[in-house]
Write a structure and sequence with these properties.
Radius of gyration: 24 Å
Number of strands: 0
Low-confidence stretches: none
Number of helices: 12
Structural class: mainly alpha
Length: 262
C-alpha cells in the first residue's frame, strides 16, 4: 500500500493566517487617520513639556490617557495650577463621548472574551469608531479592530515622543500652528460619514452656527452649535420620514382604488 505523505497544514498556521489578514486590513484602514493625527501627537507631547511635565510624565500621559483633546486640556490645567479633582472631572466630561461609542459598539464586542473587551475598550477612540462603528455586527472582526486600534495607539505614542523630544529642544514649538491638526483630524472623521441628507443638514448647521457664534464671541459657542446641529438633523430626518410615509400611503390608496375599479 502506498502511503500518502502529504499532510494538511497545521490548524495553528491556518488560524495565524486568518488572523493576520484582517489585522493588517485594520492597519491599512486606519492609516490615513493615523497620518493625519501625527501633528496632533507632536503638539500634545510638546505642550505637555511646555506645561512643566517631565519627559516620562508626558509620555505616560499619552500611553495611559490616550485622548488628544483631554491631554491638551489637562496639560493646560496643570500649567495653570488647577487641582487634580477639577482636572479629573474636566477630563471625564471631555471624554464622555466615548461612553456613547461603547454603547454603540456593545453589540459587536459584548460576546467577546474579557481580554478582548478590555483591549478594544482601551483603544476605542474617535478614529477606531470611525473605522469600525459602521460595520454590521456579523461583519465585525476583533482582529481588524485590533489592527486599527493598536497601530493608531503606536503612532500616537511615537508622535508624542517626537513632540516631547522636540519640545525639550524648542520651547516655542506649540506656537507654530500645529493645533490645526486637531480640526483637520475631526474633519477627516466627519466628512466620510456624511451619507444622507439629515447628516449633511446637521453638519452644515453646526458649522454655520459655530462660526457665527465664535465671531460674535459667544461663550459655549461649540456646545450651542452642537445642540443646534443635532436638533436640525433630527427635524430633517423626521420630515423626510414623514414625507416617505405619506408617499407610501398615497401609493397604497391608489393601488387599492385601481384594484376596486378593475
Amino acid at each position: 500500500m502506498v502511503q500518502n505523505n502529504t499532510q494538511p497544514n497545521p490548524p495553528k498556521k491556518k488560524q495565524s493566517r486568518e488572523r493576520k489578514s484582517p489585522f493588517w486590513q485594520g492597519v491599512v484602514a486606519v492609516l490615513p487617520l493615523s497620518i493625519a493625527v501625527i501633528p496632533w501627537g507632536i503638539l500634545a507631547g510638546s505642550y505637555a513639556i511646555d506645561a512643566g511635565l517631565s519627559g516620562v510624565e508626558a509620555q505616560a500621559m499619552s500611553a495611559v490617557l490616550f485622548a488628544g483633546s483631554a491631554q491638551l486640556v489637562a496639560a493646560g490645567m496643570f500649567k495653570a495650577g488647577v487641582g487634580i479633582g477639577t482636572m479629573l472631572v474636566t477630563t471625564f466630561f471631555i471624554t464622555s463621548r466615548h461612553f456613547l461609542y461603547s454603547v454603540s459598539m456593545r453589540g459587536k464586542i459584548s460576546n467577546l472574551p474579557m481580554r478582548w473587551r478590555l483591549i478594544l475598550g482601551f483603544w476605542l477612540t474617535d478614529e477606531l469608531f470611525a473605522v469600525c462603528g459602521g460595520q454590521p455586527d456579523k461583519a465585525f472582526n476583533p482582529w481588524f479592530a485590533a489592527g486599527a486600534g493598536g497601530s493608531f495607539y503606536l503612532i500616537w505614542n511615537l508622535a508624542s515622543f517626537v513632540g516631547i523630544v522636540a519640545g525639550s529642544q524648542f520651547p516655542s514649538l506649540n506656537e507654530v500652528g500645529l493645533e490645526f491638526a486637531v480640526a483637520a483630524t475631526f474633519i477627516a472623521l466627519v466628512i466620510p460619514q456624511i451619507k444622507s441628507i439629515p447628516l449633511l443638514a446637521s453638519v452644515g448647521a453646526s458649522l454655520v452656527v459655530s462660526v457665527l457664534l465664535t465671531l460674535m464671541q459667544v461663550d459655549a459657542a461649540l456646545m450651542i452649535a452642537s445642540i443646534f446641529g443635532m436638533v436640525t438633523g433630527y427635524m430633517c430626518e423626521t420630515l423626510l420620514n414623514g414625507n416617505e410615509h405619506q408617499t407610501s400611503s398615497k401609493k397604497r390608496v391608489e393601488t387599492q382604488s385601481d384594484g376596486e375599479q378593475k
